[in-house]
């Protein structure tokens, strides 16, 4: 497993005049991660509360609205090793992205995206010819440590 950065939130703008930032969250709970990195900088969360479209955070390193607004679009990450351990059968989306996808013993492409539309995770695969297709993870994908096995009946 790589210790590549995992994006937990993105700064979507300033909130108020004191330097708070509005966050779009990619995790249910950001509170276990008081220190995040983004754009080569380290940010320390000193307060976090629910806000419009996600959360509002105070970052120790951001002192005013102009500084907060300048961070718009910054992805806030932690190393993969900072995430909690998983139980058997669980996975982080970040661990699957980039894995080769195999069907009938042949590599058909690479995992590029995972979406959850409510009924379960959907894996988007980019085929070797550049086209993409989607498969439901729960019934069409077997997850192995270094590759994903795709049920051939779901391969376009």
Give a short summary of the structure.
The chain has 156 residues and is mainly beta. Helix content is 9%, strand content 50%.
CATH class of the largest domain: Mainly Beta
Q: Give the amount of beta strand, in percent.
A: over 45%
Tell me the domain tally. Answer: 2
* Low-confidence region ranges: none
- In the CATH hierarchy, the architecture of the largest domain is Beta Barrel
Number of helices: 3
Which value, in Å, is the CA radius of gyration?
18 Å
State the secondary-structure class.
mainly beta
Quaternary structure type: single chain
N-to-C span: 29 Å
Mean pLDDT: 93
Strand count, sense and barrel status of the largest sheet are: 6 strands, antiparallel
N to C succession of SSEs: EEEEEHEHEEEEHEE
Question: Which fold does the CATH topology of the largest domain refer to?
Answer: Elongation Factor Tu (Ef-tu), domain 3
CATH superfamily of the largest domain: RimM
- Shape annotation: elongated
Strand order of the largest sheet: 3-4-5-2-1-6
- Helical proportion, percent range: under 10%
Counting DSSP E segments of at least 2 residues, the number of strands comes to: 12
Structure characterization notes:
- With 156 residues, the chain is mainly beta.
- It folds into two domains: 5-82, Elongation Factor Tu (Ef-tu), domain 3; 93-154, Roll (SH3 type barrels), CATH 2.30.30.240.
- Helix content is 9%, strand content 50%.
- The protein contains three helices and twelve strands; from the N terminus they run βββββαβαββββαββ.
- The chain has helices at residues 65-70, 93-96, 137-140, and strands at 5-15, 20-25, 35-38, 41-51, 54-59, 75-79, 100-103, 106-116, 121-127, 132-136, 141-144, 147-150.
- The strands form two sheets. A six-stranded antiparallel beta sheet has the order 3-4-5-2-1-6. A six-stranded mixed beta sheet has the order 10-9-8-7-12-11.
- A hairpin with a 2-residue loop joins β7 and β8 (106-116).
- The longest helix has 6 residues, at 65-70.
- It is elongated.
- The model has no long low-confidence stretch (mean pLDDT 93).
């Amino acid at each position: 497993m790589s210790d590549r950065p995992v994006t937990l939130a993105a700064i979507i703008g300033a909130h108020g005049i004191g330097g708070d930032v509005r966050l779009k969250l990619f995790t249910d709970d950001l509170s276990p991660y008081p220190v995040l990195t983004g754009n080569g900088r380290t940010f320390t969360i000193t307060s976090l509360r629910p806000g419009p479209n996600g959360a509002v955070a105070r970052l120790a390193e951001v002192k005013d609205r102009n500084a907060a607004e300048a961070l718009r679009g910054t992805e806030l990450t932690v190393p993969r090793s900072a995430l909690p351990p998983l139980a058997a059968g669980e996975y982080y989306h970040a661990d699957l992205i980039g894995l080769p996808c195999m069907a009938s013993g042949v590599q058909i492409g690479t995992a590029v995206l995972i979406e959850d539309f409510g009924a379960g995770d959907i894996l988007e695969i980019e085929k070797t010819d550049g086209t993409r297709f989607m498969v439901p993870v729960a019934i069409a994908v077997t997850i192995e440590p270094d590759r994903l096995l795709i049920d051939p009946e779901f391969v376009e």
